[in-house]
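Sequence in, structure out.
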Amino acid sequence: MLCTRRLGGLTARASALLPVRSRLGGFGAGLRARRVSTGWSPVGAAFNVKPQGLRLDLFGERRGLFGVPELSAPEGFRIAQENALRKTDLLVARACSTPPGPQTVLIFDELSDALCRVADLADFVKIAHPEPAFREAAEEACRSIGTMVEKLNTNVELYQSLQKLLADKKLVDSLDPETRRVAELFMFDFEISGIHLDKEKRKRAVDLNVKILDLSSTFLMGANFPNKIEKHLLPEHIRQNFVLAGDHVIVDGLHAESPDDLVREAAYKIFLYPNAGQLRCLEELLRNRDLLAKLVGYSTYSHRALQGTIAKNPETVMEFLEKLSDKLSERTLKDFEIIQGMKMKLNPQNSELMPWDPPYYSGVIRAERYNIEPSLYCPFFSLGACMEGLNILFNKLLGIALYAEQPAKGEVWCEDVRKLAVVHESEGLLGYIYCDFFQRADKPHQDCHFTICGGRLKEDGDYQLPVVVLMLNLPHSSRNLPTLLTPGMMENLFHEMGHAMHSMLGRTRYQHVTGTRCPTDFAEVPSILMEYFANDYRVVNQFARHYQTGQSMPKNMVSRLCESKKVCAAADMQLQVFYAILDQIYHGKHPLRRSTTDILKETQEKFYGLPYVPNTAWQLRFSHLVGYGAKYYSYLMSRAVASMVWKECFLQDPFNRSTGERYRREMLAHGGGREPMLMVQADETGLLPV
């Protein structure tokens, strides 16, 4: 998952890429080569041992989170945001007094960078830092910077400084394509923020945006909050599957993989039981998004959100989803019949197929048909081996190596976070990836990629290195056992690393369009493409070694694993179609004709097929409604494009260096600096394994 946030015209967008003609000669052209550090160590070994030395530097200087000096304490966020806001005032004055030209775009991008460097970092810290004081300070920084951005997006004088440039045809024609596109993107965000409105309505737009930010934050917290029930209401023999707290049982998830039908049923009904406050929050969020869209001239929030994406409008999205649903329907029914058959076989007394059944029983079917019990695979997928596999792949495809680097005191928020330097064989250091891979209390369960600092070409000719975080939830290693990954965990690792490499290789002049900062419905293409590499025997054979014996994983094991992914694939994808259509309806015409729960029930039964369970409200756990509001379809569209890229470019040889360089040159390097093109042909729904 790509974690993104829109703070108006001056911050990051979500992602894109596409095979386009490159205008960048060499990626290091005009840039100083980064020196190689002697403090780097091999990446595989670094992940198969517990981190050493992070607590031993008792007297060294404390550098602050991510090396930002101010962030050695929570109070530093206030200092950082005040510095950013002071710099913002200076840059706004400079933008308004500078004659129109390419320099105008550079100033806007520097303004965007000053705000993003605080807001993006704070966006991560507010959900991931183990200390409440840091989380609260980061939350306040997000709100402060977000409010400033919304004010800037309705600043008429600032808008006019950009408008003068874009209104002068001679000046526009003199701009290089990337500069022109970035200028147009800034202008586009002014327009969808309501710059054309009168003063009173512009203030209303700012107020609505700030309220939406607050509601989004509240909804995200509620989406992950556990539910509890008095323990006497649960059968005694299943209570031990949950956390006990006095006279209550705490349920913090769906327990989808539990072999006990009653445990899954209880978890589903308790975890998804409607919370009145969360329901009001969702309704308010959807209502305020609709009010904002209408205020700035769009018929629905979805129409506003899809401007600038590949799909362009909700009509195209719904056509795509309905066409896909039609193609899936027959195969989905067959999948449900197979799943129900397995349930009947194992639980003949209660064989009705319910929404809590498919994840577990499809796993049973895969294991039975292909003998892919995770315990057979995990010993071959130690975390160190998987990281070395990524290192081998990137080295062969792109001439890139990953090295572990010891972080300074205070640089990381938890002692088990690893820092990776991404190094090109001729260009040197490209950027840094912080790997927050291990489980801990209060850490979100989602696997995510966060941009901390975007890359850009600075005035002195140096390149501002991109910095990102990858967040997973892997088990810790023990004294005698490294962290062992299931096949699903391994695939997720490859997926998130696809986002990270997009960030590292998006070498744009402007941070506003660097790396993953491009249209949302292309955001997942590089990451989904990495899943294809993770499921190719030629790639897996390079790194899958038994952690004790060193034995390579037998080819038939990899083949069985790949074949097993086709089991119930239609039902899995049909579920995603249901989610995407639900998202479109919620962000479509308002007022909604029915309650969000009634819409959920109707949409689930029409586009998924399994019955709605009374007194549940899955939509209140649908956290993607915040970051991917009206854009959840992006996963499916990106999968279509990634499938085509794999077949046309890498299927024949996943290690081909010239193809890898072309992929970098024509797709990854541009970030959002080029107009994305829909690469799928007539059959846009060729998404299932064949």
